[in-house]
Fold each of these.
Amino acid sequence: MKKISLSCFIAVVALCVFSGCSPKQPENDYTWLKQGIETAALQLKFTVAEIGDSIRLPRSIWTGYDTDFLCHQLDKKQLTDKDSARLKPIHDNLGSRRYCFSIYDWTSGFFPGNLWLAYQLTGDESLRESAVKFTNHLYPLREYKGTHDIGFMMNCSYGNANRLSPADSVRSALIQTADNLCGRFNPEIGCIRSWNFGKWNFPVIIDNMMNLDLLFYATRLTGDDKYKELALTHARTTMKNHFRDDYSSYHVVSYNNDGTVEKKCTHQGKSDASSWARGQAWGLYGYTSCYRESKDVQFLRQAENIASLIMRRVKTEDAVPLWDYDAPDTPQTPRDASAAAITASALIELSTLVEDGQAYMEYAGKLLKSLSSDGYLAKPGTNRGFILMHSTGSLPNGSEIDTPLNYADYYYLEALLRYMQVKEIDYKHI
Ligand code: GLY
């Protein structure tokens, strides 16, 4: 036995001496990471140049839908009148860049956020200048109260601005937004209201877990625990009502005014009972943040259980999930690169919060390598300037199917940053 080990060792050393490498090289080959960062910087600069002075906010690429395809994905013989009424009209500009309809679009903060993250990754001053310009454009949002998404909109833009280029006006805009988000909290129900549209009495979506980070940040900025306490109450109520026994989650839970549940259903998943891929990723990310901030172990268990569910239920070789974990397992079924990017980012953070996070880090590494491969990473100058291909926004609504999404790019960049921080990789030395 000893003899075999020794001869193996000699063979490895000999191989390394002759090939001029260190034994660890394959594991430490970060060419994929470098390619991801370089592509991101090129794509973002290309997009900024194409937009010119008009300041529009890129969101995705216009896609259409085919009714037979939708029926197959949703396991329905035909679409009901209700389904059909929800379908977004097919845009006559298929294939062109889709912009946010205004700064009040829920995704408006991601493009400025992408510029900030790419600046942080590369140190490229021109990216910082563009980030400032696009972030300033969102300034009126500090007064907006119409959706829970103000957390995404302001934290990804102004939150990153304050981290990388702090200023009093930026800090105040974040605190004002956090106050407005708290204004959507109903103490009887114990949740922040997500949407103002629809027929629900008080809809709360699993995505809302992502907006808690703005409240945690507001507590850090002000020293006032009220933001954090409110966020944790929301997280506890959501833990009680959004999750099934296997830790998969409903997309929408609507409440009656007395705090009882009115309805559990989906808006963007395959069915009310299915596990919508991005929803599971939002939940994982949200409960990881809650544990980071509170050190309450029930949030850690929740995050770990969601992580297990995701890793257990994935059907693809490269781990980039189908748009819904219950979607038909066929080559035609669209994937959701945004869910993969959010999951990767969350798992990297989770790996730092547990005693042995290796399995989470390895899974995140696998996701990031997949996303940085030719299958998902755009070639510079293509993909209308977006970084990643193959995400799915809202398939049951016929919207943004198998297309780039600005938030897939955002969480991909955030995950690259986190990965480099944990592994202590310096971009300049790759
Ligand atoms: N928060 C909306 C979505 O994930 O599509």
Amino acid sequence: MARIVMKFGGTSVADMDRIRNVARHVKREVDAGHEVAVVVSAMSGKTNELVAWTRDASPMHDAREYDAVVASGEQVTSGLLALALQNIGINARSWQGWQIPIKTDNAHGAARILEIDGSELIRRFGEGQVAVVAGFQGLGPDNRIATLGRGGSDTSAVAIAAAIKADRCDIYTDVDGVYTTDPRIEPKAKRLKKIAFEEMLEMASLGAKVLQVRSVELAMVFKVRTFVRSSFDDPDAPGMGDFLNPPGTLICDEEEILEQEVVTGIAYAKDEAQISLRRLADRPGVSAAIFGPLAEAHINVDMIVQNISEDGSKTDMTFTVPSTDVDKALQVLNGSKDKIGFDVIQNESGLVKVSVIGIGMRSHAGVAASAFRALAEKGINIKAITTSEIKISILIDGAYAELAVRTLHSVYGLDKS
Ligand code: ASP
Ligand code: MG
């Protein structure tokens, strides 16, 4: 017997037929003797609709009332799934965030989970009861419902798994695992059997949209073994209930991955823009003068490249921001022109950041050089490069995104089985 958290996203609970199908997945694990907590999202499209209603009601909406409205989508699915489970003979009960409680901070609309008291859920497991928990929501210190930011029910699931010390957290979604790259761009992309927490964190942060980034951070900190798998597979197909090797991708500690490849995956993020400040004074405090005001304006700066000055007095600084923030960034920078002291600003939108990710890079030389050579052979110009121990990110023109992803995917042999 084990303790399992099963999370189902919006497309998996999109209508009553799919909710009944989810109930069969849950029944399979209950029949195998496991203790089960289920976490559900709102039906697909529901949260968008609720968000639009709050905007319609008041464009400058009060975040507490926004949360009261948008959290309702998950309340509906948790009750419906509990009913569907009861209907097939399973003792199930729904739980809203405040009933457990899942305590969060006060950042309504983008709250962080602070603490979860799992004792009542665990006591009820002892009575043979399945918990169906509304994802995406908790209770703020002001005693009001707080939501966790879009995609937050992944984070609810991992946090609950950590709180009740679950053996596994299964994230059921509309894809059957994590792939070496986006299969819509490269049909030869392969499903990964396993991926390390750190790699998944990079993949999620750098553009892969399978999981909310925060959920991967939590899984890494609390070492929650997390499976990404499909809810559209037949719940009773052979192997579906295999405890050690269910179909899907396991996100786990790197120690669990014996045959580590040098490169695990290629991610990409569209709609990046580059801003360059030319002939800045090369003195202490320029970076602070540039990035301080951008941070205050909530502009998310990503890659930053500064050249070493040739003459000890002037230098250039280039960085990237999301395309949607360019105008705001230019306004902020021009507003601080006297403090920063630059000659001209240049900018370019429609760029793409392609990233090569793999823990194996730590101990292998030449990984970056192969990427640069391969892109050069295809005539793709590199605009900026940043690296960490386990990733290389390359900024290129948007028109070459797909070619670059496919080229890098094949250079590291990811399309071979
Ligand atoms: N329903 C919420 C959203 O659409 C939370 C989630 O699905 O994870 O963002
Ligand atoms: Mg989601």
